[in-house]
Amino acid sequence: MGLSYKMRLVAVVVVMGIAVAGGLFVKGLVKPASFGVYGHYRADAIEEETLIPIRHATNTSCYTCHPYEARIHKTGLHKTISCEFCHGPWADHVAGNKKIGTLPVKKNKEITTLCLRCHNTEIKARPHEVIKTVAMPEHLASQKVKLTHNCNQCHHVHAPLKYINRAKQITGLGEKKL
Amino acid sequence: MKTDQEKRDFLKKVLNGTIAGSLYLVMPMAALTMGTGDTPQDPKGPDISKLPEQVPGIRGKAYNILEQEFAFVVDITRCIGCGACCVADQQEYNVPEGNYRTWVERYVKGFSDQVYVDAPNGGLDGYQTPRSDIDEWIRDTFFVPKLCNMCKEAPCVQVCPVGATFTTPDGFVLVDHDRCVGCAYCIQACPYSVRYIHPETKTVDKCTWCYHRVRKGLLPACVEVCPTGARKFGSLKDKNSEVYKILKGPGVLTVLKPEMGTWPALYYKGARREVV
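Structure tokens for the assembled complex are given below, as produced in the milestone run.
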């Protein structure tokens, strides 16, 4: 160990230099390309997140091919309801401008269950100034229909008061007395 | 005593030096990239140009990620607990059963000030029956939709050991599924319990406020399907957006767990103090 003090200093500096250079080299190998552009993460992950397929395509896309339902739905009290809530997402129905599947249409008791999801008076947590609710089967009894009736036998599911208003018009029952 | 103090000072200096040095190694390079226009059109997806522009100011130009800010407002006084948001969210991402990116809780407050909270299947099946297990007079009851709070000081981001979860410059807390090692530290850190381990990818997953939709000028799926307008989303850079007007206006807005210092971008309107 006949190295002079100066040489030992040089050796220490050289070793440290090699360590730093090695460290930087390894860092360059393992660090993803966009890491650290905005912060301590891979910036490309932001753009990758935008590539997730869109599965809900708004009522506007439904209306393009279903003008009959659109006309009724747009005028009724249910106009704020999304088609895709009851029928399922657009992406299960269309892909690349081609129909790939049929979306379910609720039938019979399923309809009543679906209606009561929003319109059940029993659920007191519902703000009743936001939604009109009914008690079942009292509503059926008070309207003098069979207790086995489903909601859609009186209410059009897309525009709930469509038939009711029409019936009132014809019979003159709902008109205000002058 | 004096030597102790000197030792302490010396150690402090060394430690500071080490920290500064290691910081220098991981410091970001000043290179800032900007988006180069609309995100590419998915050939199987809907034609974006034909869909309404629900979040104005994003489509048809380069997205400047540094110049955007968004907010989410949940109006508890309008939530009817239909669960449309939960269904839409589950369908948009094919969320595996038993996991929820968003959910709706039912709060019931008795006259004894006892608070009962439940969320059967996260509200995915709606609320068909009232609670039958409460043996007292009910003073107040309401629904509370829950989702990611998009904290400005996100605890989940702070604890992630691999930089797999992060806050984007436009304010979204996202997950890099390529980097996530599934350690679940962020699940423990999140005060709002919005994170879960995806059973297939084994990486963490969470509500993203539908970042992929927002970047195409569409509303998040849950906001899109909400029939009563209980969920509102919009840009704070757009002076005409509903959320901008709500945030600017005099109405009382609260955030969840403000004492945690997370500074959420999700605001609640009409939330009682029991809501956590």
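The first strand of chain A starts at residue 94 and ends at 95. The longest helix of chain A spans residues 5-30. Further analysis is deferred to the final report.
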